[in-house]
Amino acid sequence: xxxxxxxxQEAISKLKEEKGAVILAHYYQRREIQEVADYIxxxxxxxxxxxxxxxxxxxxxxxxxxAETAALLSPEKRVVLPDLEAGCPLADMATPEEVRLRRxxxxxxxxxxxxxxxxxxxxxxxxxxxxANAVEVVGKLPEEAAVLFLPDRNLGAYVxxxxxxxxxxxxxxxxxxxxxxxxxxxxxxxxxxxRAKVLVHPECKPSVVELADKVASTSGMVKYVRESGAGxxxxxxxxxxxxxxxxxxPEAKFYxxxxxxxxxxxxxxxxxxxxxxxxxxxxxVQVPPSVRERARRAVERMLRL
Length: 305
What we know:
By secondary structure, the chain is of the alpha/beta class.
């Protein structure tokens, strides 16, 4: 390991103890960020864990909506995002004003929002979901109720495939990173590695999802590798997860489905920014109380399921 990186990681670890902070890192973060984190996982999993910890400061190494979710579940704690410019193009594809207009135009369906949304959009929604539980969440809503699923059209199409008789309206949003994977990418790698299992995130296009041995969230992929007994995997999600997979399962082989699977916003978080945020406890992410209460209801409805 580079000496400068190691020294900075050690400084972060020391400062974290002094500040009474916990560092959370999404699977898509840089390798050196994952190595200094207390917990690595998907966004909601991390926020729920942080809410249960006796700490006063949460440093969320992810993107803005993730830090907002942590602030929703831990309003009494200080939530810090090392770079406020680390956003999510998918989350930005739905605004609360647009949701209100679309809901009215469709006759007021139940709004199911993916966790990859702003707190303000969550506040306009009936219930929240994750990529891991979206199918289950929609399945537990009243059968006669129409659903507006947002903002990811690919995840929405995946969910709709389980309930072809239901009225499910899809928002036209998408993740630019997952959208970049093509079926040809998977088929090319399958020719090279015929025994490899194909793991696909449901934010990918339907043509890619159809080729999957397992469609799963990031945490679901980690679980599948552990339980499948296979030794090779083609992974169709952001490249950052490969570091965690290789660390936890060093005997397995992992092949990134496409070189385009890199999120520039996730990579905006650096060790230097993480250290500075611990030093200053800024930039802080807060959710206004009026928004927080409405958004929290949507999240809590999901958790009750």
